Model the fold of this input.
Amino acid sequence: MKSTNRLLLAACLGMTLSLAACKKEEAPAQPAEAAAMTAPAGTDDPAWKAYLQDVVPRNMGNISNPPIMYYLPAESDPDFQGKYDRLAEQVSNAVQRGVTSGNMVAFGSPASAKMADLITASFAKAAPGSFKGARVLFVGAAADNERVQASVAPTNAEYVFVEAK
Done:
């Protein structure tokens, strides 16, 4: 009797395990990646910040550390000049220190030309090779791309441009 019970128990257990294995093979399909957002047409800060928070992770490449993100509001902001000056000082100090390999620095703004001015002025103070192995992402207007790329090049950073459109 004990042998029969053990055999039945073993058979049930084997059947349960094989059913569990079948269910693992039927894992639900992963949801498709969400479509990329488009740049806001206006100067709405929350909309721009949400847009940049969508764009930056999509352009991380092989970077695994959290990105360092810099945002400049639109020129219509009542304290634009103050915010520009504070951000320029912050970015300039960070760029002069350099960024270690495996990190990403991202820049974005509805005021693309002003952000490009800030980036080029800051990177003019950077030591050659000080961003080797790091990535610099600029989200802005195509008209500003070349000068930003030229200012970043001496640091040996991997430069990535995303047109805000």
Notes: The longest strand covers residues 135-140. The chain has one domain: 45-163. The radius of gyration is 25 Å.
